[in-house]
């Protein structure tokens, strides 16, 4: 390490020096022709874009976007905060409500990695619980395990398992933790099972917060737009902490178009198609010896345990990029995003090829090398 690097490192707080950064699907720098690794929508948007008035600062919370999203979620505008993706919502909640080196957050593993990374960044403790507890334990057992944690993150549907926590259980947890902790329900994939949304609890519970995004069903992953939904009293201190101009005028213009009533109707049609394609993929996986276990669940993805982790290498050789995972201590898991019919046909070709003698020979070569 150079003297300059050593000097810079000496300035870092211990929690940042020890931080393991979140590895996103795009940070892996893979190459391919069919991309099914980031739970993106296959539908590209055709939007009108105006670049006027860029010499002026934008509205920090663009009213048209706020009003339209409030209408979409059947909430009031005061219950909606627009952020740079749901990730900023996670960061704002931890930064606003947790005291460094004192407070902790509770999460249920395996789950979305940014909860832990954000807590580590702010020197906030991790109360690592399990999805099994969340799904099978009683509300009393869950609350006892949560202990004194200030924030409780429930990814619903959960990424990467697709499991869904019943709304009644979320309500019971929120009831028991009233005045003790915020229950944060991350609904990045809720459009694929909208009846399970916790937004209907917000008016009743001051400690329920819902995170949303336009990255998945709304097909705007590149826009980096999300929403934090809660009672006004919960959002008030967050509004003090958020950056002065978090939403650019261009982003606001695109987001407003994406959540207009006719665009929402279009999104729902696309979700119906994607859910149908997912069912077809599950059928293929059930018929394939390549998949030892399939976690179907909800959301625009399917996670499975491979019979041989070298099958992933074969997919990459074919230009098919999916997301390899280590789950439950095993590194032979794969998450497949639901793409277009043509993209999923590439998955079918890959699966069918794994059952041929030629594919077996390729595996043998991989194992030797």
From TrEMBL:
Its EC number is 2.6.1.9. SUPFAM superfamilies: PLP-dependent transferases. It catalyses: L-histidinol phosphate + 2-oxoglutarate = 3-(imidazol-4-yl)-2-oxopropyl phosphate + L-glutamate. Its cofactor is pyridoxal 5'-phosphate. Pathway: Amino-acid biosynthesis; L-histidine biosynthesis; L-histidine from 5-phospho-alpha-D-ribose 1-diphosphate: step 7/9. Belongs to the class-II pyridoxal-phosphate-dependent aminotransferase family. Histidinol-phosphate aminotransferase subfamily. This is histidinol-phosphate transaminase.
């Amino acid at each position: 390490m150079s003297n300059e690097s050593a000097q810079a490192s000496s300035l870092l707080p211990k929690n940042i020096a020890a931080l393991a950064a979140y590895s996103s699907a795009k940070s892996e720098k893979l190459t391919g022709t069919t991309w099914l690794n980031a739970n993106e929508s296959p539908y590209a948007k055709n939007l009108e874009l105006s670049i006027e008035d860029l010499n002026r600062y934008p509205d920090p919370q663009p009213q048209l976007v706020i009003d339209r999203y409030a209408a979409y979620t059947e909430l009031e505008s005061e219950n909606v905060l627009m952020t740079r993706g749901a990730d900023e919502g996670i960061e704002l909640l931890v930064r606003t409500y947790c005291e460094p080196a004192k407070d902790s957050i509770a999460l249920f593993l395996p789950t979305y990695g940014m909860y832990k990374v954000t807590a580590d960044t702010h020197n906030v403790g991790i109360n690592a619980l399990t999805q099994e507890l969340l799904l099978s334990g009683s509300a009393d057992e869950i609350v006892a395990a949560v202990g004194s944690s200030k924030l409780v993150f429930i990814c619903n549907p959960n990424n990467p398992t697709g499991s869904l926590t019943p709304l009644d259980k979320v309500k019971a947890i929120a009831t028991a933790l009233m005045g003790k902790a915020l229950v944060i329900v991350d609904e990045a994939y809720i459009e694929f099972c909208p009846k399970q949304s916790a937004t209907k609890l917000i008016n009743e519970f001051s400690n329920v917060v819902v995170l949303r995004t336009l990255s998945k069903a709304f097909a705007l992953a590149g826009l980096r737009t999300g929403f934090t939904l809660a009672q006004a009293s919960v959002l008030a201190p967050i509004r003090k902490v958020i950056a002065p101009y978090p939403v650019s005028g261009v982003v606001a213009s695109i987001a407003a178009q994406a959540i207009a009533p006719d665009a929402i109707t279009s999104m729902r049609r696309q979700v119906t198609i994607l859910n149908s394609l997912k069912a077809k993929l599950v059928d293929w996986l059930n018929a394939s010896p390549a998949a030892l276990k399939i976690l179907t669940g909800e959301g625009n993805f399917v996670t499975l345990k491979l019979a041989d982790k070298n099958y992933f290498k074969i997919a990459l050789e074919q230009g098919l990029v999916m997301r390899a995972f280590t789950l439950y201590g095993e590194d032979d898991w794969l998450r497949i995003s639901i793409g277009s019919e043509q993209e999923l046909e590439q998955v079918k070709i890959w699966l069918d090829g794994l059952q041929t003698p030629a594919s077996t020979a390729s595996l043998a070569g991989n194992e030797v090398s």
